[in-house]
UniProtKB/TrEMBL annotation:
InterPro entries noted in UniProt: NSUN5_7_fdxn-like, NSUN7
Gene: Nsun7
Entry keyword annotation includes Methyltransferase: yes
Name of the featured protein: NSUN7 methyltransferase
Alphabetical keyword list: Methyltransferase, Transferase
């Protein structure tokens, strides 16, 4: 009996990913002059060490950090407009964590974060997570006011047009994975994918959601529709490094 692939709901991350994303964001955030910036970040003259548990954690941390960077101006405006910032119990050194966790909170529609039972708890993440969630109504209202102010249907409309167009083009490209033949064969990958409800087609022109094709020139490369990217990154095949994202 085939198992179907279920859509993955956004439910937050383990504490370690927020901490790592905040460290990355602290080093790449847009610096503003003191007279223009009302949001204060701690000193980032020294690059903090970032330790990742595995490849999935690394990708999730960088993705969260760069999403916060893309929407830094909007996130700061939401914090200020809602009066959630400044908060004198949160030092400047934790502002980056506040911003990346705010991005994630709005990304999951201000719903409660999932609890990861076996994950190490980080006190700062718990504190800021509870703080933001307690003000979720004010934050959601501030986001709504920003959307009305800038006539934006969604937060994607806050991106510069050049960035938005690049993301649109990138999101339409098929997703390619190398088969790690040191760990698994093409036949075993196909068998695993079929058990999960995927169907093999001849080419990308035949894609219809849960489908994939074998690259015509590299037979150890599989190609999937772009819409499946998030779900593919949560497969055991990817977590076990049997499929490697191109």
């Amino acid at each position: 009996e085939k198992r179907t692939v279920t859509r993955i709901e956004k439910s937050g991350y383990p504490d370690s990913i927020y901490i790592n994303a905040a460290k990355i964001f602290q080093g790449i955030r847009t610096e503003k002059s003191e007279d223009k910036s009302q949001v204060r970040y701690g000193d980032n003259s020294e690059s903090p060490m970032v330790a990742f548990k595995d490849e999935h954690s690394r990708r999730a941390s960088y993705e969260l950090a760069f999403n916060a960077l893309k929407y830094q101006d909007l996130l700061e405006e939401i914090l200020l407009d809602s009066k959630v910032y400044p908060c004198y119990s949160i030092p400047d050194e934790l502002t980056s964590l506040l911003v990346v966790m705010l991005y994630d909170l709005q990304d999951r529609k201000f719903q409660k974060r999932k609890i990861f039972a076996e994950e190490e708890v980080v006190a700062e993440v718990q504190e800021i997570g509870h703080y933001l969630y307690s003000y979720r109504t004010k934050l959601a209202a501030a986001l709504a006011r920003c959307r009305i102010k800038y006539d934006a249907l969604s937060i994607e409309y806050f991106l510069p047009e050049t960035v938005w167009k690049q993301e649109q083009r990138a999101s339409a490209l098929p997703v390619c994975f190398w088969i790690n033949t040191l760990k698994i064969s093409l036949e075993d990958v196909i068998r695993d994918l079929e058990m999960k409800g995927f169907t093999k087609v001849e080419s990308v022109s035949d894609f219809d959601h849960y489908t994939y094709a074998v690259d015509q020139h590299c037979h150890d490369v599989l190609v999937f529709p772009s819409s499946l990217r998030e779900e593919l990154l949560n497969l055991d095949l990817f977590a076990d490094c049997k499929l490697l994202l191109q």
